[in-house]
Amino acid sequence: MFRSISLSLFCAVIMSTTALAGNPLPFGMQDDFEDGSLQGWTSKATLTNEPGGPAGSLRYLKITSDSNVAPGHLGAHNMAQWGGAWWNGEATMSYAANDVTALAMDLNNMGDTDLALRVMVTTQYSGRWVSTNPLNLGSGSDWQHVIFSLAESDLTQVQGTGSWLGGMDNVVRWAIRHDPIGPDGPENSPSIDATLGIDNITAVPEPATMTLLLCGAGLLVRRKRN
What is the dihedral of CA 57, 61, 66, 70, to 10 degrees? Predict the structure, then answer.
């Protein structure tokens, strides 16, 4: 009887925890801007889809900020496919479900000012998490392939409470922005005249998960050949 009750309670806890998680972020999730749209990215800065990009690309997203036009922040965020507005009944995204531990992308600082870039992840239950250390991108950098880690050890919780895992299970949106002072909240990003090109934004699973995926693909190919 005791074992039956304990098992029932255990199952109830597991089910309730699972119910709190958002939809799994798909493997290989990528924004390449080849369709000519902004692909759900928004900002108070100016966003345009432009021809060009890194090698192999035809189009990219350009972010332009003007220090004379309030608030003058350089950055952009996406909730359309990288998260979800839970207050509107939309499901959030679980990055933890598929072990997404980093965001890879191509960046180009097209302006005359050096940039200190961080990602900021907004979650439903655990506030906001920001890159502890910035990625420094010099002016006129040309296209550079970079990776922002989402590991707990590489992020700082700047707003709210709750666990990192609880946050990665319920991502509302994430942003990339110029933040030389932080890590800090969204209101503390300085005004700046800057232009940033961004392309091929990709969800990256942890190496162990990628190895399993490759092994699974290899087994599938062997079965087909046999």
Answer: -170
The arrangement of secondary structure in 21-225, i.e. its CATH architecture, is Sandwich (2.60)
Q: What is this structure's pTM?
A: 0.82
Half-sphere exposure of 178 (CA within 13 A, CB side): 28
Please state the domain extents for the chain: 21-225
First CA to last CA distance, the chain: 50
Q: Per the structure block, which two tokens stand in for 195?
A: 């232009």
Q: How far apart are CA 71 and CA 105, in angstroms?
A: 25
Distances (CA, A) of 149 to 51, 63, 139, 188, 206: 28, 22, 23, 22, 10
Residue-wise pLDDT for 14-72, tens only, equals 333 444 788 999 878 999 999 999 999 999 999 999 999 999 999 999 999 999 988 89
Which value, in Å, is the radius of gyration of the alpha carbons in the chain? 20
